[in-house]
Write a structure and sequence with these properties.
It contains six helices and two strands. The chain is mainly alpha-helical and about 160 residues long. It has a two-stranded antiparallel ribbon with strand order 1-2. Strand 1 and strand 2 form a beta hairpin. Helix 1 runs antiparallel to helix 3 and helix 1 crosses helix 5. The longest helix has 24 residues.
Length: about 160
Amino acid sequence: MHNRCSVTAAGLWHFTSVEYSVINQLEALRPAIKREWEHLLRTEPALSPLANPDTLVFLMDETLAQVLQGLRSRSLKKWLHEAGILMTPLQRRCSCGVNPLLTYYATGELALRAVTARSLGANFEPVLLIFHAIAQREIEALCGVCCHKGSPACPQRQLAAPPA
């Protein structure tokens, strides 16, 4: 039987809610994700005082809670509709490159991949989609109030789709 709403680049998955077993599995992996994320975050240079890993680690619980809540409460189709250009590299979300959330979310994605991708299998794609939607929203919000915005250090540019 063909499911019209299930085709993605990575394979097949349905655009409705994620199964509770996946959410429970992700919740169980949460401490390991945080350990890996903190390790990766601390290996990256801090580009600004706001990028201090000692500060950013306190955001991890809230970010993971938002991912889990997103999996519980909204359909993936709704996430896709609201998020716009999701899977572009997060670094392209900030023109000047000093947004501390760039490193925070990039290392978070690496931690998610390292800890959960294999165990979640095809169910990893919805987790990554929601993580990217949250990252995109947070990065763009901080860039919106950045003191570099519009300066020669941070020229405004529109995100373009990567060349095919």
